[in-house]
Amino acid sequence: MPIGLDRSDGIYVRVGGTWKYLFRAVDKHGRLVASMLSDRRNTDAAYRFLHKAIKAMSHSPPSSITTDKLASYPKAIQRLQNDELLPKGVVHRTSKYLNNILKADHGALKRVIRPTRGFQSMETAAATLKGFEIIRMIRRGHYNKRGWRAASEVRLVNQLFGFAA
Fold this sequence. Notes:
Elements: E1 5-15, E2 18-26, E3 32-38, H1 43-56, E4 64-67, H2 72-82, E5 91-94, H3 100-113, H4 122-140, H5 153-161
Parallel strand pairs: 1-4, 4-5
Antiparallel strand pairs: 1-2, 2-3
């Protein structure tokens, strides 16, 4: 059964003294599908992000995509369909209310980001945000690597970051 790229939205993050846009997408179960840090919030960035999200869901392509009303999303979706990376029958829904779960999740992510007082570079921001997302996925039990569960969090962190036990 095809799943929807149920919610796609983003937040602004301070990097090097300027605001950058963090695109985020979750599936219908609230599991993070993809995230991408970008300088801009334009059609090219939306295209790259949606392409990344669709690639991450290659095992089950989306039947619907829900976004906010950013004008770049319909253009990016059309471009993905023209490039035959996304089926023509995919429904694009634009409703801020359907994204409420993701909006609430943004608040939790911002609480983790706030103590960093921003990032110095795009590279450190992307790496740190990826780490934040991984830890949050593990705590929710969304990390789907075979054999890993939330109880294995310490072992995974040691493996990912090379800490001694």
